[in-house]
Amino acid sequence: MKTRVSGKAQPAKTVFIIAVLVFSFAACLYYGLFNSRTAASESEAESAGSSGDYLSFRDDQKNIGIYLDEMAEIDSLEEQPTLLGWFDTWFHENWFSHQKLKLCGTDHRFIPMITWQPTDVPLRYIASGLYDDYIESYLREIAEACPNNDVLIRFAHEMEMRPDYLHAWYSWQDERDPEGYIEAWRHVVSIGRKISPNFKWVWSPNHDDEYTIPYYPGDEWVDYVGITLNLTVKEYYTAPYMDFSDYYAKKGSRSFVEAYNKPIIISEVAYYNETPEVREAYFQSIFDYLADDPKICAILFFNADASNTRTFEFYSVESLRKIFFDGIRRLRELNSESD
Predict the structure, then answer these.
(1) Which of 202, 208, 258, 320 would be 154's cystine partner, CB 3.0–4.6 Å?
(2) Residue among 151, 167, 272, 262 at smallest CA distance from 208
């Protein structure tokens, strides 16, 4: 017995078959286009990497950096500094870090300077390998985000203690363990060098003198020597340094920094004074000094209030912002003349 097909069923079946064919064709077309675009993107990326499209840190030039947290402030930069600095604390996910890595790696706008803080993580535990999984995971993420960038890493900075310090402000500093610090430093750097040759390691005490020497990991373990030169209001009134050069030579102990015979990075520089003209003159002296000192390859401007008496934020002050941008332009011209 034959099944009768009604007059309405036949056209519906035909429409269904046509729809399936159209959908299949569209899917194949999309898949082909997607694959071709992906292949093209991969090819462009490989071509960029192989053609020398690499953002390297030129320590034979004068480089300026800044610590900025707000993306709106970063986007508002009138002149582009070489370095973008920020702080990462161990085991703390930082959304802003991912955004800044994108600016450095994907957008190729800056070279990152990451201060990597092992807060509440014992130094000798780090050296023992207990935290290797975390160290490798973190550094691989940085390497993958910045495959065509140099990356400056300032690990466990400001490690020294001095008799005039009332207390430590970092856990690794409070350990007062130079041997443990050196072991931890070398262990972390060893892992980092296996992961990526792009990493450059910045050993950066607070100031430099006889109290920092025991913490030095050795020439083969350090790419750059850094120092913090944040001049507070209290220091201004008790020891009135005339300008940046004076402060660097006396409080920063320039002779100790230079004795390591490494390129020098002023990892943080900040200054506050209640008199605007005095603060402006000091800011100008920073750029004047950098232009004349061949041993300093970079200065990063700290831009945050550390406490009520250490108000270092400057980017919101128009006159200081102008000095900052003018200084970048001046140094760029100086770099061009030296090339």
Answers:
(1) 202
(2) 262
Residues 290 and 282: their CA atoms lie apart, in Å, by 13
Q: Whose CA is closest to 299, among 263, 272, 273, 274?
A: 263
pTM of structure: 0.83
Predicted pLDDT at 233: 57
Phi, psi at residue 75, to the nearest 5°? -70, -20
How far is Cα 43 from Cα 126, in angstroms, rounded to an integer?
A: 40
* Rounded-to-integer distance, Cα 135 and Cα 195, Å: 10
Instruction: Write the pLDDT tens digit of every residue in 135-178.
Output: 999 999 999 999 999 999 999 999 999 998 999 999 999 999 99
Q: Class assignment of domain 61-338?
A: alpha beta
